[in-house]
Amino acid sequence: MPDSLSLRVNGRTVQLDVDGDRRLLWVLRTELGLTGAKYGCGEAHCGACTVLVDGVPVRSCRLRANEVRGREIVTIEGLEKDGRLHPLQKAFMAHDALQCGFCTPGMILGALGLLNANPRPTEEQVVLGMERNLCRCGAHPRIIRAVLDAAAELRGEA
């Protein structure tokens, strides 16, 4: 039986009548048409489904929709503001850290969660902070450089 859920997604409140036990990934993709978060493994191992909940990266493939009632959810679609890409999105492009693109939304949101917690990470902290987001194309060195450059821009040092 559907529940009435109020979710705050990318800065707007949405009301949905869905099964509250349904995984957040599928609510985002099928109910809201936000397909940036990808289904990779379904076991919260690969990070392709990463979104931010209250600024913290979470694996939406394992999180139930009713667990995020009233909390702030940000997907890759919510990073662009007024037609301008987020510094992480620009840095990923500048460093060619996109490769096939499947993991990119989760990587960017995982990196943003890292930078929310630590705006001045070292290279080692970026490596450790991103270890739960897998890139099968081998773009990790470029991803690390992109995250460090975006961190500098966000600090006003670029």
What do these coordinates show?
- With 158 residues, the chain is α+β, with helices and mostly antiparallel strands.
- It contains five helices and five strands, in the order ββαβββαααα.
- Strands 2-1-5-3-4 form a five-stranded mixed beta sheet, with helices on both faces.
- α2 (87-94) crosses α5.
- It is globular and about 50 Å long.
- General shape: globular
How are helices and strands ordered from N to C? EEHEEEHHHH
CATH-assigned fold name of the largest domain: Ubiquitin-like (UB roll)
- Give the class-level CATH name of the largest domain: Alpha Beta
Q: Oligomeric state of the chains?
A: single chain
Comma- or semicolon-separated keywords:
158 residues, alpha+beta, Ubiquitin-like (UB roll), DNA polymerase, domain 1, 5 helices, 33% helix
List the SSEs and their pairings.
Blueprint: E1 3-9, E2 12-18, H1 24-31, E3 50-53, E4 56-59, E5 72-74, H2 87-94, H3 104-117, H4 123-129, H5 140-154
Short description:
This protein is α+β, with helices and mostly antiparallel strands.
